TrEMBL record:
Keywords for this protein: ATP-binding, Cytoplasm, Cytoskeleton, Microtubule, Motor protein, Nucleotide-binding
Entry's Gene Ontology molecular function annotations: ATP binding; microtubule binding; microtubule motor activity
Name recorded for this polypeptide: Kinesin-like protein
Pfam families registered for this protein in UniProt: HHH_3, Kinesin
Lineage: Eukaryota, Metazoa, Echinodermata, Eleutherozoa, Asterozoa
Compartments it resides in: Cytoplasm, Cytoskeleton
Species: Acanthaster planci
Gene (UniProt): LOC110976557
Swiss-Prot/TrEMBL GO biological process terms: microtubule-based movement; mitotic spindle organization; spindle elongation
Residue ranges crossing the lipid bilayer per the database entry: none
Length: 662
């Protein structure tokens, strides 16, 4: 028998630290930085509205440009590692714009190791210390790790390159896990190093104008500490540490990204945008937190409003050229300070049974279940372990669930078998599809770069086939509309003359098509302004015009798509030949569309022709990061919206229909 107990702790606020990178280029060294530290917890940045003013921020810790890797480790990492050894979860993540020093902070260099090697070293040190402690002598410890990246909204294993998107699952207890994610047991820092260094080379990086080795993906390293008593009361604690190096938010006007880099950037910015929405929802106490809207937030669920002790390190750059990115990152960091998690101790008590062997086989390291397996299931497996006599320990450290199935009750076994067979069938199907799409590269490191290339080619192929199917859909829709309009025309044959002018037909179908599937009115939406608000702990002086920075979103009214029917009820289909651009009307429509772009919710943006969910999100994300659109062509600045798409948006929304307040 085993009991799973959650020893609840008090709610804990996420710790937010800011680290300022030193000026890198010699040319920039004489220039005044746009941001500077005030003391160990606060800093100030220029106020872009008023150059005579600055905006002040307070954080849990501020590390200035002279800070050492050791300082970050002491304040942000060390305290959390001790918690992991007590069966609690901890997350440390580096956030910030591209080139601001996230990877330097997380990984560092051989001379200046960052958080990751230091955290692993901490855990080994703590284990050794606790082993020496007389009271802890009865505990067995083991440490294992998994490593993954989220690249273009797909989860890839970095330890075992399979070139396939790993599914994210959630168990009944709402624990997120990734089946089949590789896990390696490590017994020393050297062993970790030997496995981790080649794995980190699998991470997707590329040169952009702002960083010669820019991370194109979010990476997550999961360390799992299992602590188990070999004598009564046979307790077992599992603590997990997530070390996350996020990809940097990017302004593609500055990165000079094109093609695949631009697409990567779109995925990065979108997932960071969802991260912002999650933080907003948590701050506002909303019932629905959009964790599922991106893989990143889904995997960070535990760190954001979940059960982990969390620390966010926001990396910023001092150069004036990075001002806007720094300012945006500080705002995000500031609002993240209000996130509260509820860490608990993940502890299982294993009650000894008659079959329990007098002495367990202990080869030093304990075998564990896959890192990503849900804890409740672990509890069940643990209970069954009691009945196993001297079950051999796996050197691999990764145990498949079916290995335990023979020790389950018949009912549970059937269920386990069923789940397993379902899982393996799905897995086989997925493998099959992936193999067809992406023939597997040979194993071994020499082929890992092929794998990455294949993955990129696969992405491009998928994108092309998506665009093709969209075009096909549009085409068939167009034909359907054309057929409908012809049928309608025939229905009305006695009342109306059908124009034989091809331009009339074209316009008519365009009109009908533009209103196809659109509801007459859209539900009212509340557009939340980009708040800077009190969270920033602005300087109290009344002279500081920091509140000028509050961007007020104009009230959003009901918006509806208006077809080209004129007010007298005369169909413009009939007047199509008169549908020459009317400059006044065009100007009005342009203004309305710009207003919608600057204030509309995702739902409202979707009322625009050629704008679906994803494009609407990209538009909104850009607006929140870079401010308002002044012309519709500004849409070309949005990452992930190619010029052709923007032209289509303009064509489809401006020429034959207007957007009116209803
Ligand atoms: N604290 C620091 N001290 C010295 N050099 C630094 C520091 N932080 C960053 N750098 C240097 O700045 C450059 C960019 O840093 P890094 O690659 O860590 O940025 P990043 O935020 O991870 O960027 P991206 O999001 O594009 O991956 C690197 O050359 C790195 O060595």
């Amino acid at each position: 028998m085993s009991d799973s107990t959650s020893v609840s702790g008090t709610p804990t606020r996420m710790k937010v630290a800011v680290r300022l990178r030193p000026v890198l280029k010699q040319d920039d060294k004489d220039k005044e930085p746009c941001v500077r530290g005030l003391d160990a917890t606060s800093l100030e940045i220029w106020n872009w509205r008023d150059t005579k003013q600055t905006i002040k921020y307070n954080f849990d810790v501020f590390f200035d440009a002279t800070s050492r890797q050791q300082d970050i480790h002491e304040k942000c990492v060390k305290p959390l590692m001790a918690k992991a050894l007590r069966g609690q979860n901890a997350s440390i993540f580096a956030y910030g714009p591209t080139g601001a020093g996230k990877t330097h902070t997380m990984l560092g260099t051989v001379e200046r190791p960052g958080i990751i090697p230091r955290a692993v070293n901490d855990i080994f040190r703590l284990i050794n210390k606790q082993k020496l402690n007389a009271g802890d002598a009865q505990w067995m410890y083991s440490l294992s790790f998994s490593y993954l990246e989220i690249y273009q909204e797909k989860v890839y294993d970095l330890l075992e390159v399979k070139g396939q998107d790993l599914p994210i699952r959630e168990d009944r207890d709402r624990t997120i896990f990734i089946p089949n994610l590789a896990e390696r047991v490590i017994t020393s820092l050297e062993e970790f190093h030997d496995l981790f260094v080649p794995a980190s080379k699998n991470r997707t990086t590329a040169a952009t104008k702002l960083n010669s080795r820019s991370s194109r993906s979010h990476s997550i390293l999961l360390l799992k500490v299992v602590k188990k008593q070999e004598a009564p009361p046979y307790k077992k604690q599992i603590g997990k540490v997530y070390l996350i190096d996020l990809a940097g938010s990017e302004n593609n006007k500055r990165t000079g990204n094109r093609g695949i880099r631009l697409k990567e950037s779109g995925a990065i910015n979108t997932s960071l945008f969802v991260l912002g929405q999650v933080v907003d929802a948590l701050n506002q106490g909303l019932g629905r937190v959009p964790y599922r809207d991106s893989k990143l937030t889904r995997l960070l669920q535990d760190s954001l409003g979940g059960s982990a002790h969390a620390c966010m390190i926001t990396n910023i750059a001092p150069e004036e050229s990075n001002y806007m990115e720094t300012y945006t990152a500080l705002n995000f960091a500031s609002k993240s300070r209000h996130i509260v998690n509820k860490p608990f101790t993940n502890e299982i008590t294993e009650r000894p049974t008659a079959q329990r062997p007098a002495k367990r086989s202990s080869s030093g390291e304990e075998r564990h279940q896959a890192a990503s397996s849900p804890p409740r299931k672990k509890a069940k497996r643990d209970s069954n372990e009691q009945k196993v006599t001297n079950r051999p320990e796996s050197a691999e450290g990764s145990t498949k669930q079916q290995e335990n199935a023979p020790f389950l009750s018949p009912l549970l076994r059937r269920q386990a078998n069923f789940e397993e067979s379902m899982k393996s069938r799905l897995q086989a199907l997925e493998n099959n599809i992936m193999t067809r799409l992406n023939p597997p590269a040979n194993q071994g490191q020499a082929h890992q770069s092929h794998d990455l290339q294949n993955r990129q080619i696969l992405e491009q192929l998928k994108e092309s086939s998506k665009q093709l199917s969209q075009l096909q859909k549009q085409n068939s829709k167009f034909h359907q509309v054309l057929a409908n309009s012809r049928m309608k025309d025939q229905d009305h044959l006695p009342q109306r003359k059908i124009s034989s002018d091809p331009s009339t037909k074209k316009t008519s179908s365009g009109v009908a098509g533009s209103s196809l599937g659109q509801p007459a009115t859209l539900p009212k939406a509340v557009v939340k302004p980009l708040t800077m608000s009190t969270q920033h702990n602005f300087a109290p002086q009344p002279t500081t015009k920091s509140n000028l920075l509050k961007r007020r979103a104009p009230d959003v009214q009901f918006m509806k798509i208006k077809t080209c029917d004129d007010p007298k009820g005369k169909s413009l289909k009939e007047n199509a030949h008169q549908l020459q651009p009317n400059p006044e009307l065009q100007a009005k429509h342009t203004a309305e569309i710009i207003h919608l772009l600057n204030t509309g919710s995702v739902k409202q943006l979707k009322s625009l022709q050629s704008v679906g969910e994803k494009r609407a999100q990209l538009i909104r994300s850009w607006r929140q990061m870079f401010g308002e659109f002044t012309t519709i062509s500004d849409l070309k600045k949005v990452n992930g919206l190619p010029s052709k798409t923007v032209d289509a948006i303009i064509r489809n929304n401006l020429l034959c229909q207007g957007i009116a307040k209803g």
